[in-house]
Design a protein that fits this description.
The protein is of the alpha/beta class. It is 29% helix and 21% strand. The chain has an eight-stranded mixed sheet, with helices on both faces. Strands 2-1-4-5 form a four-stranded antiparallel sheet, with helices on one face. A hairpin with a 2-residue loop joins strand 9 and strand 10. The longest helix is centred in the middle third of the chain and has 18 residues. It is globular, with a radius of gyration of 21 Å. The C terminus is likely disordered.
Length: 343
């Protein structure tokens, strides 16, 4: 993707958290830092859905909070529609014009909704803060986004405890789109819902994307959902993006050993009931506290490792058309990937 085509462009993004209290560090001790996000670069195009996957603790939540400007980066660039927003302190970003352009739909709608707000007030809140709407204009906009998200008028006067899980999810989505954003960050938006409700909400998100020309950053542990909904995927491990590419292509022929192991856990249609194809990685992930900058994050768990993996950090390089992997010894099958339909 050319830089001019990107709605969001992230380059060299890092977030380090100090370990321990600065006040008690001895003068001669070098402070320690946890590298939650460590040199991440990627882009999201206009109208594109990009999936972000990886195990718990890999840095996904920190990354999306950096992009939403809820956290300040330690280093790197975040450009939105060509403008640098990473240098604006998080505490001041609420006043920036881009605040309404980037919105989040949170994992648990129950926790994200104020129990003292009706559905109407929850949806109206960003309009009051960011658009300064009031009176008839406010009521009209709330009614419009309620219609777009399938919320009937009689539900707008109810409080969260009076709504079902699916209805609360719709309120959360309505609140996010109320100020007409261009990028929605979807942080496990259906994980707290029953399977039947998940399908309905995911279809709603697909419909809204088409109707409103939205771009999505879709964070999920459900790899089957990611495969079906996303145009491209980013695979994250220990603060690094280790693979990226078209969703169908990466699922068909992963190039990075970690991606291969991660995807092997996804149930495949037609697989024998008693036969496991899961690929395990030995040992535990390395500590993200002060990691050696030249060593591959997967070193010690990867059977393909060599001396090169401790001599230099692998960087993302194109393995196949549009598919990139940060690996000195990528899986050979990905060089000529066996493309398959995303469905």
């Amino acid at each position: 993707m050319m830089a001019g085509e990107a709605l969001l462009a992230v380059e060299g993004l890092r977030k380090l958290f100090p370990v321990g209290k600065r006040a008690i560090w001895p003068r001669n001790r070098v402070p320690s830092f946890l590298h939650a996000v460590d040199g991440v670069s990627f882009a999201i195009g206009r109208g594109e859905t990009v999936g972000l996957v990886g195990e718990s603790g890999c840095g996904k939540s920190t990354l999306v909070r950096l992009i939403a400007r809820l956290l300040d980066p330690s280093d790197g660039s975040i450009r939105f529609d060509g403008e640098e927003i990473g240098t604006v302190p998080a505490r001041r970003f609420g006043l920036a014009p881009q605040r309404g352009q980037i919105q989040m739909v949170f994992q648990d709608a129950t926790d994200s909704l104020n129990p003292h707000f009706t559905a109407f007030r929850a949806i109206a809140d960003p309009l009051l803060r960011l658009r300064r709407l009031s009176g008839a204009a406010l009521r009209a906009r709330v009614a419009e986004v309620a219609r777009l998200t399938g919320l009937s008028a009689d539900l707008l006067g109810r409080y969260p405890h009076q709504l079902s899980g699916g209805q609360k999810a719709r309120v959360g989505i309505a609140r996010a789109i109320a100020v007409e954003p261009r990028l929605l960050i979807l942080d496990e938006p259906t994980s707290a819902l029953d399977v039947s409700v998940q399908v309905v909400i995911l279809q709603l998100l697909q419909d809204l994307k088409r109707q409103l020309n939205l771009s999505y950053l879709f964070v999920s542990h459900d790899l089957n959902v990611v495969r079906l909904l996303c145009d491209r995927i980013l695979v994250m491990y220990l603060g690094h993006i280790v693979e990226s590419g078209p969703a169908g292509q990466v699922f068909a022929a992963p190039a990075h050993p970690y991606t291969q192991a991660l995807l092997s856990a996804v149930p495949r249609p037609g697989a024998s009931a008693g036969r496991s194809t899961r690929i395990g990685l030995p040992g535990e992930p390395r500590s993200p506290i002060d990691p050696a900058p030249q060593i591959c994050p997967l070193y010690g768990r990867c059977g393909r490792a060599s001396e090169a993996c401790v001599a230099s950090m692998p960087v993302l390089r194109e393995i196949a058309a549009g598919q990139f992997a940060a690996c000195h010894h990528p899986i050979a099958d990905a060089v000529e990937p066996r493309l398959m339909a995303a469905g």
